[in-house]
Amino acid sequence: MFTVSLGAIEDQYFALSYAWGDAKDRKPIAINGHERMVTVNLEAFLHEWRNGAVLEDRPEMYDTSFWIDAICINQEDMSERASQVNLMSKIYPSAKAAMCWLGQGSRSCEHGLEAIVRLGEHFYLEDDDAAGTYQNLAWNGMQNLFAMEYWVRAWIQQEFALA
Predict the structure, then answer these.
(1) Does the residue 138 lie in any domain?
(2) Based on the domain organization, do 46 and 95 belong to the same domain?
(3) Of residues 119 and 94, more confidently modeled
(4) Residue 1 resides in a domain
(5) Do 139 and 118 lie in a common domain?
(6) Helix H or strand E segment including 31
(7) What whole-number distance in Å separates Cα of residue 86 and Cα of residue 77?
(8) pTM of this prediction?
(9) Structurally, how many domains does the chain consist of?
(10) pLDDT, tens only, 27-68
(11) DSSP letter assigned to residue 153
């Protein structure tokens, strides 16, 4: 982790958008040799990122820098939190992109993502059983995908608008 001026790193970092989850349910991570407690959902993202699972199709992103609110903002300091919230209108637009971590999904969510891709490829109902089975898996998967905690988080709309 390193400290930089926002203007000095424009387009050189990704802003992570994610659902915190239960703030009391925490796991330790190491930052510059020091232990820091973060929510289970953030730890899951960092674990997946570090192990390369998120990067399978994007090897050019291995050395990516992130702005992550729970790490970059001292959550114990109310004045810092307030000033950082005021900077959100600069943090997200200055990022190379906003990366959304929906959380650890299930196979059903994978069906939902596949269905979203197919929607763009003229996804339609068919009468035979095989297509009907896929159709049900796809729609159930999308329902499970959009039922994930990420979508109900209050900051998501602001982060999307700013990114």
Answers:
(1) yes
(2) yes
(3) 94
(4) no
(5) yes
(6) strand 26-31
(7) 15
(8) 0.66
(9) 2
(10) 999 988 999 999 999 999 999 888 776 666 666 666 778 899
(11) -
